[in-house]
Amino acid sequence: MLRLITIEFYKLKHSRSSKVLSIAYFVILSFIALIASIEFNLGDFQIRIADQGIFNFPFIWHFNTWVAATLKFFLAIVIVSMISNEYSNRTLKQNLIDGLSKKEFMLSKFYTVVAFALLSTLFIFIMSLILGYSFSDYTEFSIVTREMEFLLAYFFKLVGFFSFCLFLGVLVKRSAFALGFLFVWWIFENITYGILRWKGSAEVADAIVQFFPLEAMKNLINLPFQRLNFIETAANQLQADIAIDYAVHWYEVAIVSVWIFLFIYGAYALLKKRDL
Amino acid sequence: METILTLNNLTKHYGKVKAVNDLSFTIEKGNVYGILGPNGSGKSTTLGMVLNVVNATSGDFKWFDGSDTTHHALKKVGAIIERPNFYPYMTAAQNLELVCTIKDVDPGKIEEKLEVVHLLDRKDSKFSTFSLGMKQRLAIASALLNDPEILILDEPTNGLDPQGIHQIREIIKNIASGGTTILLASHLLDEVEKVCSHVVIIRKGIKLYAGPVDELNASHGFFELRCEKQQELIAALEGHPDFTSVKEENGLVTGFLKNPLSAEALNTFLFNQGLVLSHMVKRKESLEEQFLQLTANLN
């Protein structure tokens, strides 16, 4: 396993574009911290975003993972080109001739994807801790460790998305087309949702579309902003936590896990069937 | 003798096209093999199948004694196929280091192998800056990194200029003289003739011949002779029991043998008859002539 990761990182290490994009990704991730310094001047009021509760534990886990997840496209480019370059340079063929099996080739890509996701999760974990301890109103250990399942959801979301990219890379062999296909697929999911909602109902549409890959990944971490308002306005009055909808459910993780397996196995099956 | 590769009825169909049809042969250790065939005869497809990049339609093959999986066996093989494939953004040395990691071998040999192909002074240049000849030589260096049991070369001189072709041939000869088994696919007959001891001839995916180059044709070769007394020479040869036919062309007498006969024996025989030769050459048909004969027989 270490050998396979070494092989893949060696390839990435020497590719300037991959290096630049990966570094850019982590730099931009750290820009989340800059949200803290955003200040508005509304007449006499001065509003500081950091003071509005977004960096409060445990909400920060939800907020930061959601924001960070929107940046995953940077790494998606690296991952798609990681596959398509092997096709366009014909190095995939040479790798196999040199004694890498097709399974090892696929695993080396998958391990790399998992490593990227782990790294990103770790990065967000550390950054959230720092931001949280700097700005949160509550820093008791029991509150800090609450809702940390969002980190797990974040990890699965990234691995799922990157696996999809790997699969598309193998399927179409060209990075631009693979990313285009990803976009088309996203539109397809939305149109399907629209039609189901129009012909059936919102419940039917939700029930079906939640099994689609991109929707399944989206459901792992729901939009956090309504929750922010909710905390601000309602929490005082109700004194109750009714935000169950935002939680990470086991079946959401399960659906994404199934997709990860299907994408990786599908990519391997494609590779195995093809003549190079 | 140790077997390196065995093919059993290996077949590959692309739709209706039968690229390789029931091909069987074995590669023994220590020989230099040539796979010979016109363009599109299935040479590269055959090599692709044994190298794990093309899926066989039917039949099978085994590396060495067949106890290992193909991809493990390939770590003991060095191969280059068609054109050299490397990462363009890495330098020569970086590319070779990656190959070492894949093949699980010590990267200490990189400089030594670059020296073999005369690329040591360019080891820190990016692959994308190399000429085709240099790329091809780098590919050979890469194939040699693991000191392979067998070196497979598919059209190694394709697209090179005469100098490049010469360099590659010298390198191949050097490697062969070191005792490495070589399998060389080519459509260039003189190339195969110059370096190979054994040939496999295929045409339209069907094997026509597999065996030593010398036994490709049952003939024992021919003599080219010249003498002052041309007519007496022809008469003498026609009277000799070892000759099948004699012909004269441009003042040169060619006699075809049906039995083995040494040049010394013939010279003595003619001298005793009072015929002194001014020109004497014993030759075998070139591979090209034999190849054309063999393929012509099937038409």
From TrEMBL, chain A:
The chain crosses the membrane at residues 20-40, 60-83, 110-131, 151-170, 177-196, 248-271. It comes from the Bacteria. The keyword Transmembrane helix applies. Keywords: Membrane, Transmembrane, Transmembrane helix. It holds the Pfam family ABC2_membrane_4. PANTHER family: INTEGRAL MEMBRANE PROTEIN-RELATED (PTHR37305), MEMBRANE PROTEIN (PTHR37305:SF1). This is ABC-type transport system involved in multi-copper enzyme maturation permease subunit. It comes from Leeuwenhoekiella marinoflava DSM 3653.
TrEMBL record, chain B:
The keyword Nucleotide-binding applies. One of its GO terms (molecular function) is ATP binding. It holds the Pfam family ABC_tran. It comes from Leeuwenhoekiella marinoflava. SMART domains: AAA (SM00382). This is ABC-2 type transport system ATP-binding protein. Keywords: ATP-binding, Nucleotide-binding, Transport. Residues 5-229 form the ABC transporter domain. The keyword ATP-binding applies. Belongs to the ABC transporter superfamily.
